[in-house]
Amino acid sequence: MKKAIILAAVLLTGCSAPFGDTSEEAEKAQQKDEKVLIDAPHYLQKPELERGCEVTSLAMLLNEAGVETDKMTLAEEINRVPFEENGYKGNIHEGFVGNMRTLDEPGLGAYHEPVAELAENYLPGKIKDLTGSDFDKVFEQLDDGRPVWVVITSTYGVLPESEWETWETKDGPVKVTYRMHAVLVTGYDKEHIYANDPLKEKNTQYPKDEFIAGWEQIGKQAITYME
């Protein structure tokens, strides 16, 4: 199994853990001074897909897992729902809402369910949906050399309540925000999260606490794969 590159910081303490620490506690303490970074593929969503962050980040994850595919293929295959139909807004839990290609027509995005469903078509039985778990589960995957697809706010932090609205869908009310984004998390260090951002550069660096707080606010959505 491919492992992440771990860059251990030089510790100013001795080589043994403080008296009374268990090996597990010592390992967790040491991890705070490490840098884990995965060399996963990086693709940009633009110019073809103005709202295509979810499928572009999924393409990165699948290719890292050894599956040859691309964002345009995934854009055609992901389940779609209309932006609005019969007086109801589209359910972001069921499929990609609205137009993915252009901002000239209404659209929103997709939550983890349709993305995980699409990923299962490529890696049957091997997709691991971590949604609802704490970010420690994401760290565990990164430590094992697997990047993680996540939904994050587009500010990479907590949004004010004014940025949220409740849509009436045919399945009931759904809370959404237009300030949403999807990236592939590729690593971390003591103060940062690293991600292949389809709107930015490979292994873009973000403040760890702010990133995790924004991720929690939008539902703790995370997907990876099992080897």
From TrEMBL:
Domain Peptidase C39-like span(s) in chain numbering: 39-198
Pfam families given in the database record: Peptidase_C39_2
Keyword Transport: no
Gene3D superfamilies: Cysteine proteinases (3.90.70.10)
Keywords of this entry: Signal
Stretch forming the signal peptide: 1-19
Key word Signal present: yes
Cited InterPro entries: Peptidase_C39-like, Peptidase_C39_single_dom, UCP032442
Highest taxon of source: Bacteria
Protein name, per record: Uncharacterized protein YvpB
